[in-house]
Amino acid sequence: MRKLLRSIWQFITFPVRILTWVGRRINSLFKNGSQNISSFFNDEEIDDTPIGESLATTIENPKALLPHINALRKHLLRTVIVIVIATALSFLFVHDILSYLAKPIAGGIDELIAIDVTENVGTVMRVTLLSGFTIALPYVIFEIWLFVAPALRVRSRIKGIIAIPVALLLFVGGMAFAFFVMLPTALPFLFNFMGLTTQPRPSSYYNFVTLIMFWIGVTFEFPLVIYLLANLGLIKAKAFASQWRLAIIIIAILAAAITPTVDPVNMGLVMAPMIILYFISIGLAYIAERGRSTKQKEALSNH
Predict the structure, then answer these.
(1) Burial class, 255, CB count within 10 angstroms (exposed 0-12 / middle 13-18 / buried 19+)
(2) What is the 3-state secondary structure (H, E, C) of 135-155?
(3) Collapsed DSSP state (helix, strand, coil) of residue 205
(4) Are 140 and 81 in contact (CB under 8 A)?
(5) Listed residue (247, 245, 246, 265) closest to 256, CA to CA
(6) What integer pLDDT is reported at residue 86 of this predicted model?
(7) Average pLDDT of 261-281?
(8) Kind and range of the H or E run holding 45
(9) Each residue of 73-101: pLDDT tens digit?
(10) How far is residue 127's CA from residue 90's CA, in Å, rounded to a whole number?
(11) Of 141, 145, 136, 139, whose CA–CA distance to 41 is shortest?
(12) CA–CA dist 47, 54 (Å, integer)
């Protein structure tokens, strides 16, 4: 009789016990997460050993790299999982994405005609992967920050976490600039060059559009990267300013590599924002250096 009553009681209280267990798990997760987050923003000793000495120590004792390799493996695994999930979500809306990307063409997606048997499949996969990566980009940057943060001081960690949404806005802004400014200017010129009528194919059109949007989005990150590196004291604004002629030559080479066509119009459309961003980066580097020198003077005066 007691066993029967005990079984009945366990059956009745089973949902309550399940909810209690779930609540404890969630509470422990939040507790551990809050502790991990707070540890990133607490003052602690940072190893200031020079890079040369660190490399020599690592060569003498390779096992010291194992914790870092394990940490990198975990970050990469989580990053891949999120990219896969984002890509799967993008696949559900890939037709809408394809239709939107085809808006710069008069007639839209209906004007694209496939010739090869596997052309549509390859196009869908390319657009899906790029869309998934773009959606997962904030998390990818966050994982990079989590991997690098333990080697930074608290002030640098805070700047890094603030830089994540800024980096996302710059990347999306670059893609928007390419889609709304560059493509409406470039496509009519390319489709009607020398009076020759062009029938766009899905593979060539989407390869052109996604390549331009992705690399312009990446180049828009340049000012932020330069500002952070200058703030850490790794680069000097004066060096960038004195080498502007060489920078323009490098930008021209990069623009030629990014632009799928050989015409100077599209190459110029790619070069123009890159040159502007370069000079903006010089100004941001000067600002970062001034702020860094001010903080160093304050630290010396306090001591």
Answers:
(1) buried
(2) HHHHHHHHHHHHHHHHHCCHH
(3) helix
(4) no
(5) 265
(6) 92
(7) 78
(8) none
(9) 888 888 899 999 999 999 998 888 888 88
(10) 9
(11) 145
(12) 10
CA 140 to CA 210: how far, in whole Å?
19
CB-based contacts of 113, cutoff 8 Å, min separation 6:
199, 200, 201, 202
Structure tokens at 221: 């990150």
Q: What is the pLDDT of residues 201-228, one digit of tens each?
A: 888 888 888 888 888 888 888 888 888 7
Q: Answer yes or no: are the C-beta atoms of 224 and 216 closer than 8 Å.
A: no
Q: What angle do CA 79, 83, 86 make, to 5 degrees?
A: 140
Which segment, 25-39, 124-138, 189-203, 268-282, is predicted with the most confidence on average? 124-138
Burial of 212 (C-beta count, 10 Å sphere; 0-12/13-18/19+): buried
| Residue among 282, 126, 153, 296 at smallest CA distance from 213 | 126
Q: Name the nearest CA neighbour of 163 among 87, 81, 257, 227.
A: 227
With beta carbons less than 8 A apart as the criterion, state whether 145 and 187 touch.
no
Place of tokens 């966050």: 142
CA 38/CA 32 separation, integer angstroms: 10
Say which DSSP state 235 is in.
S
DSSP, residue by residue, 216-232: HHHHTTHHHHHHHHHHT
